Amino acid sequence: MIGKLVFCFFLFPCFVFILHVFLRDRRKTHAKAKLPPGSMGWPYIGETLQLYSQNPNIFFASKQKRYGEIFKTHILGCPCVMLAGPEAARFVLGTQAHLFKPTYPRSKERLIGPSALFFHQGEYHTRVRKLVRASLFPEAIGKMAPHVESLALSVLDSWNFGRVINTFHEMKKFSFEVGVLAIFGNLEGHYREQLRKDYCIMDRGYNSYPTNIPGTSYRKAVFARRRMSKILTDIISERKEKRLLDKDLLGLLLNSQDECGDVLNLEQISDNIIGVLFAAQDTTASVMTWILKYLHDNPKLLEAVKAEQEAIRRSNQEESKSLSQAQIRQMPLTNKVVLETLRMASIISFTFREAMADVEYKGYLIPKGWKVMPLFRNIHHNPDYFIDPEKFDPSRFEVAPKHNTFMPFGSGIHSCPGNELAKLEMLVLIHHLVTKFRWEVVGSENGIQYGPFPVPSNGLPARFWKESPIPGQCGCA
Ligand code: HEM
Predict the structure, then answer these.
(1) Phi/psi at 461 (5° precision)
(2) Atom of ligand 1 lying closest to residue 102 CA
(3) Which PANTHER family match (predicted)?
(4) Considering 8, 43, 141, 451, which has the largest number of Cβ atoms within 10 A of its Cβ?
């Protein structure tokens, strides 16, 4: 009885009062802050058609011109706030990252696997990210370098003799092999081949309309993903039997224990392996395709890069000697070409987050549940930060870009842990490409295709010929 009285006369009124204060404060936030400028388009479809009927970058750039660095829109059924300034990107991805969670369409999450780190926030994300980063520490990358070089040479040799190849597809083969190397170390050929086949089917389905109707690319991808899980289970059982304590990503995932001694389960390991393969392949392949295009379109620059790389080649007394870490670090012009390509192509034009609470930014309200998109490309192409931004000019990187204006690998707690490996792949490939091959782009199309990252039209068809070394120049003549 006394309990009931305490509840009626004390606890219940207290609860009502606290709720009232909470709601009043929430209303106050709403009252003070207004939604950013912009247009929400038509009911339900919003501005989806405007976005997809043209180059998305034109859509974003025209909005920024009209409304400024923060604006609202409505795409694919979701209200969104877009952020085109470096400070705002840092706010969402860095300083206030705890207020925004990563968000991906369910269909994509289902294919990659819901336990992959980039779908998560908090303890689980921190734990897996530490392992991924450890597998990609400079020491680990140093050990991988000679193998990356052999892979680069073997892919380049397969392009010889002037037949037309799809550069992007070939780059994908290379970046896939490097991804496999980083995850498994030396994986047996038959496993690699099975994984490659099913990964290709999954990759095609990832970018298709997500419907489970038999015969569609998406459904084929779902089945390929299941087969990949089975292959990974076999690889993992074999690794466990052999009790190998390798320091590649699989080894680190298998041997990880949290404070309570809990290990990661099979699904968590598989999803993260496929997640890393996925994050590593198209990204790096797209950038490498752009590098070839920009070098081809700028013959003087290509000559200068060749001169830099020939000097390194000459300093390697024997023709077959691998590039040393010191040599890879000492490629100042080539390194700037890589940076400028990352800026110009901005292959990850933006990323998605979702506000987990009402958030106020510079007097604007970002309502809970709205998608938030930092627009990397707009920042990289803003003349306030990069003079004459549409010009391919590696020399601009002689001076470091202003803080937070150059984010090809993202920023904050979800930034790319594979950035150093990606740069290594590109530098090694350029070294062998320019010192041993000449190439010619086929066709004069200058367009861009999205799949989903931007790449030159038709994957940049090109012909390659191996050049015989100039006598006396390679140190072996
Ligand atoms: C040029 C090539 C690459 C580019 C431009 C790139 C770009 C990015 C960007 C922008 C993000 C952050 C996305 C976001 O905040 O939503 C990211 C995340 C990630 N990248 Fe890369 N990436 C590249 C290559 C790689 C490679 C080679 C690997 C692995 C070997 C890799 C693994 C990852 C992973 C695992 C994440 C998720 C990190 C997390 O959520 O904590 N990436 N990448």
Answers:
(1) -65, 135
(2) 16
(3) ABSCISIC ACID 8'-HYDROXYLASE 4 (PTHR24286:SF376), CYTOCHROME P450 26 (PTHR24286)
(4) 141
- Which atom in ligand 1 lies closest to the alpha carbon of residue 120? 40
Sign of CA dihedral 65, 69, 75, 79: negative
Q: Which residues share a beta bridge with 371?
A: 80, 354
C-alpha 367 – ligand 1 centre gap (Å): 27
Give the residue among 119, 148, 56 at the shortest CA–CA distance from 424: 148
> What residue spans define the domains of the chain?
25-114+349-380
Q: Is the peptide bond before 367 cis (omega within 30 degrees of 0)?
A: no
List the pLDDT tens digit at each of the 477 positions of the chain.
555 555 555 555 555 455 444 445 554 555 578 999 999 988 888 888 887 777 778 888 899 999 999 999 998 889 999 999 999 999 999 999 999 999 988 889 999 999 999 999 999 999 999 999 999 999 999 999 999 999 999 999 999 878 999 999 999 999 999 999 999 998 999 999 999 999 999 999 988 888 889 999 999 999 999 999 999 999 999 988 876 667 899 999 999 998 888 999 999 999 999 999 999 999 999 999 999 999 999 999 999 999 999 999 998 866 667 899 999 999 999 999 999 999 999 999 999 999 999 999 999 999 999 999 999 999 999 999 999 999 999 999 999 999 999 999 999 999 999 999 999 999 999 999 999 999 999 987 788 888 778 999 999 999 999 987 655 444 332
Instruction: Please tell me the residue having the least CA distance from ligand 1 atom 1.
Output: 284
Give, in degrees to the nearest 5, the angle at Cα 113 between 97 and 125. 30
Binding site members for heme:
416
CATH architecture of structural domain 25-114+349-380? 2-Layer Sandwich (3.30)
Pocket test for ligand 1, best of 125, 416, 420, 426 (most atoms within 8 A of CB): 416
